[in-house]
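Researcher: Structure for this, please.
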Amino acid sequence: MSTNPKTDAAPDQAAAPEPLTLAARLTVPAEVMDRSVGDETVILHLATGTYYGLDPVGARIWELIGAGQSLADIRDQMLQEYAVEAEQLEADLLKLVHDLLAQGLVGIDAEA
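Model: Predicted structure, token format:
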């Protein structure tokens, strides 16, 4: 799930990390656009100029985030689709989500 953040503007380093559980659902802000390029996905935050590249596994997670699934549902779906240990997948999923949150590319759905 390698991701490669690129930015023209520094992210808000002072922001405290938001609490995150597997029950969380994420939202994609209106100012965030994505495009598939082959089996990868490029995400662009129009307001900050931040762009992020996702490999095929990260792109699949992004697709499931966009479908409104909880992180637990995403974990379970990915376990069905990929040969990976649950603990490793969960750690990788949470790391990716923390990276996306830090870059402002997703938010936590307060109603979930």
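Researcher: Any notable elements?
Model: DSSP finds three helices and six strands in the chain. The chain has one domain: 23-108.
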